[in-house]
Design brief:
This protein has 384 residues and is mainly alpha-helical. The protein is 86% helix and 0% strand. The chain is globular.
Length: 384
């Protein structure tokens, strides 16, 4: 008689559960311990496919305009499908390009003007800041000691920055590398726009090709699972990305109005930084506040203090009122897991990883939850 025949069904189930749990723990450990290797591998694939990835992202963002024209404005037109699709695609891409042109023509000059003005006046700001941090101007010995400690910390920070800039593999080399990356990124961006137009026009053809591929090489259950995962990603990214973009736009406008009313310097620059970084969940407002605070501390420490208080109030408003109103429960993730997704995504891919990590982890969370619920149902175990 074999050993497995002597074991009860419950013992067999427990053994399989323990073995499965052990495998999951080992795989998780290997994944965490090899995150840099995994990140580098994905980065290589990203660099090779980036024009098409940009095209997919642009098509994803612009598709609502195509759907609007195709299903609302051209619905009653007695035209062929190809003609409607062509006109709707041209309309959607034109809106996208006009938005980019409007950004460059309206917002970018103001940003450049603010940065140029700050750079020209930097020496004056620095002189005033140095006078403020002169121990001889302190009103008490305790204040003089505090100013001396601040000066020591600033000198140490400046020395570190100087070493980084002049190091063999430091800032200068990284700045040149960033310049080359910018040129390459611009080229990929333009190719992405062209790819987006093709994806919008032949969307059904692309979907049919991939479904045919999956159902041709995989069992039906596997292909059905991939289609289900695609649907989950589509819902998660639609709900999160569009909701977060609207939320960040509102936050950027509110920031500009409030900063301008408080008569702080460079309101456009500050509002753009705060609005753009607000796309990052949880940590976004604070990440955007850091460079703004550095600028304001040099110009006017009192304005920096007011801005710090204002950012805290704005973050509370966004986190407790505006964000939940726009996003609702679209993610289906507890706050702890959202923070986990941001940290892991950021460690792998930087800022972009912090943004897309949340909807991706939301999909993983849903898949794992469904698998656990199905497993419990199969075992006829009810968990409250």
């Amino acid at each position: 008689m074999k050993i497995k025949d002597l074991m009860s069904d419950e013992a067999k189930t427990n053994m399989l559960s323990y073995a499965g749990a052990g495998c999951i723990i080992v795989l998780f450990y290997l994944l965490v311990s090899h995150l840099p290797v995994l990140g580098n591998g994905i980065k290589i694939i990203w660099d090779a496919l980036s024009p098409f990835i940009y095209g997919f992202i642009f098509a994803f963002l612009v598709k609502p305009f195509r759907v609007l024209m195709e299903e609302k404005w051209l619905k009653k037109k007695d035209w062929s499908f190809k003609k409607k699709r062509l006109l709707a695609t041209i309309f959607a891409m034109t809106v996208f390009i006009l938005i980019l042109v409007a950004f460059v023509a309206v917002l970018l000059p103001q940003l450049v003007s603010s940065i140029t003005s700050f750079v020209k006046s930097f020496s004056t700001y620095l002189e005033n800041f140095e006078k403020l941090l002169n121990p001889d101007n302190a009103s008490s010995p305790q204040m003089a000691e505090l100013i001396t400690a601040i000066n020591s910390g600033l000198n140490s920070a400046l020395s570190s920055i100087s070493d980084w800039l002049t190091g063999a593999s430091g800032g200068i080399q990284k700045i040149l590398s960033a310049g080359m990356s910018f040129v390459k990124g611009t080229f990929n961006f333009l190719i992405g726009i062209i790819a987006a137009a093709y994806m919008l026009y032949d969307e059904e053809k692309f979907k049919h090709t991939f479904k045919k591929l999956f159902y041709g090489i995989l069992p039906q259950k596997g292909a059905d699972w991939i289609v289900y995962v695609y649907h989950l990603n589509k819902v998660a990214f639609n709900a999160f990305i569009f909701g977060k973009l609207i939320d960040s736009l509102i936050i950027g406008i509110l920031c500009y109005i409030c900063v301008a009313l408080m008569k702080m310097p460079y309101p456009v620059l500050i509002a753009v930084v705060v609005g753009v970084t607000n796309v990052i969940p949880v940590f976004g407002p604070f990440i955007g506040a850091i460079p703004c605070l550095i600028i304001l501390v040099v110009i006017d420490p009192w304005s920096a203090l007011k801005f710090l208080i204002f950012i805290f109030i704005l973050q509370q408003f966004d986190g407790n009122l505006l964000g939940p109103k726009i996003l609702g429960g679209s993610l289906g993730l507890p706050t702890l897991w959202i923070m986990f997704a941001i940290i892991v995504g950021g460690s792998l891919f930087g800022i972009p990883g912090m943004v897309v990590g949340v909807p991706i982890f939301s999909v993983l969370y849903t898949l794992i939850r469904d698998w656990i619920n199905a497993s419990l149902k199969k075992k006829e175990i009810k968990m409250e």
